[in-house]
Amino acid sequence: MSRRHRLISRSLALLLLWSFFAQVATAARETSITLDEPLHIASGYACLVTGDYRLVEEHPPLLKMLQAAPLLLANPRLPDPRTLPGWAESDLVAVAQHSVVAYRPIEPLVLAARVPTMLVGVLLGAVIYRWTGDLAGHSRRGRLGAISWGAPLLSLALFAFDPNMLAHAGVAATDLGAAAGIFAAAYTFWRWLADPSGPRWSRLPAVVVALGLALGIKNTALVLGPVFAVLVFAGRHRGTALRPYLVQGAAIAAGAFLVLWAGYRFEFGTVAGLPLPVPAPSHLLPLLRLRQHMESGHSAFLMGRNYHHADWRYFPIAFAVKTPLATLILVAWTIVRTIVDGRRRRLVLANRTTVLALLLLPVLYAAATLLSGINIGYRHLLPVLPFLYVVVGCGVALAGGQSISSPHRHTVARSLRAFGRHVVLPGLLVSYVTVTLLLHPWHLAYFNALAGGPDGGYRYLVDSNLDWGQTWKALRRYLDSRGIGEFYMSNYTINDPHAYGLNYDPLPPWPEAPPVLPQRLNPPPGIYAISSTQLQGVVVADPEMYDYFRLIEPVARIGHAMFVYQIAPHAAISWVAQCTVPVAPLSVDQLREGLGLGGDVPILPFDCSQSWVVPPGHGRYVLARTQSRSAWPTFAKGRLAYEQKITGSVPPFSVYEWDPHGMNLDPPVRFEPPISVGESLDLLGYAAQPVATGDVTWIETWWRILAPPTQALSLMVHLVGQDGQTVAVGDGLGVAVEQWIAGSLLVQRHRLSVPASAAPGIYTLHLGAYTFPDLARLPVAGAGSSAQDYVTAGPLEVRAP
User: What average pLDDT does the structure give for the chain?
Assistant: First the structure.
């Protein structure tokens, strides 16, 4: 590479690193404190100022102490952790709530703690650029035998505009630090291992420091141990002796432990179960607590399913829907080109040290995630991404080489290569950068087009994949811009929304709220801000508690993660009709509480397998979820308002809103005027279909209830031949007369089984009603009645089979 190209490349690299930092810094000013940040900050601050590591929790303290270091200059100062509730019990949540969460103003404190993570992100970008440059010939002919000064820039650009990296570089957490530490350790180890002259002691300090720092940031760096061991045995140069690598490898392990031990101030103490004192005994605490966390599980959501213990599909799906499509396409393109191009394949296989260094850790790490006991989020996949960026950069570098000898094929290949490099690749990068810039500052909410983008991602994943509590500042601006003073809010966090001026009425799972949302089937009017994580049932008593809101469109999506709903005043519920087949899902008390009903609202049980009732006014239907509305298509017009899909304290059920406005319910065959049957009913009409002998048909009779009768009734349908003989009877009633409400529409479905011995021909129907137990038919008055106790309807054709 020429000096001019080197200067251009490094200048552009600095520009990309500055762009990364600028995006992260400006986004960090716009986002509120996330769920885990007070825990990390409080833990790091306690370790830093006391030298006591009881609050390290699941992660080593190194990066957390670095994040807490700027807070030593805070004015007013944070309280001494040793004086706070929870210190004696090693309760990190209590200490965090009385220090970081309670600090005012909280925004400068949080921003200061985020700056070290941003700088670690810049360092990670620099290492990505350097490793790709080493491989692709940034300063001399590269290790893969190709020269491309644009390759390291491509790798760095993929990093600098990856929404996932930007999201986690802007919070005081350990995930991006873990990715940086693991990648830097892998890079320095590769440089030590790949030296053609054999292992050099002069390269050891960089490996020792990088590995020690990685181990001090997060326990996931332990995966480097087996990876490095495999690299020594399988990746060293052929013909070189194993012993020097083993000797220096042991020195690397010992030195890395010293660096890790330094993070614990070279503490020496006892550990339960061990007879002698050991160095860095506090480092066992995060390992122990991580194991306990994995054994106990973690509440998670994946594509409509709530669960507590791990699902192996979680991370593959998360990777597919949250990794930018451009990255997925370029990785796939690199792999395919390497496989189909024999020259390139031989070149890659000849560099097995590099191939193993770039691919072994991502493969082992990805395999480990499949066995993980906790499904927290895509952030646990961050260590894989830098390796993919380098793979793509190297793939572009290799694409510049000649691989086809035939002149004709050479011309075609050159044309395709030129089209890919000058049209497809720039197009991917432009779309990649554009999507990221448009998403700013809500990088955490990124989902690719496979999931429907940021607004579709909540259907696949929530929690730290989308909603980590980062939207409170934006929510405050939204409410202020619309003059909204009172609102309901649901969020899961130890943080305090009042720190951002949010004065809210708490909804579950806030500790001040009841465990289950009152009136969950019919929330009262108001403004509701519901976290997408709680909307999907994570960390709430009932995973389907907020289904009413899931079935309506929010008026706003703050940061694509906090959903704002406006429940307008609506007509009062006049009645509730609950189908009792196959079971009655809810008790009367549960219905009244869930719908917010007074004791004067009637609740009508009915058998929807044979009848349907429509009382006057606005109401609700409650059906067992297995009872399909498709059996009554005429009445399948009510809006689905709530659906419980899983069996809990009650069986699965569905609630439908019934609004009589615009509902024109008429029978297929209508009597004009309606026919009076007794003093309680008007017969409005019926529906009938031709039937073959030996088959079953269903007849619907449509009635208007005038008044509840004083005696039990049954509605009748008789199939009568031309000779006056009854050949089939279908009597019944699916709504007890004690539940009748004047003005209701009642539709009864009658089953008629036509005997095989019946002759094909034209039949009539006799419709009516009779009382129990005397079986006396009710008198009929009106058009269409050929007698005083039934109505003649038809004709009905009975066909030959």
Answer: 91
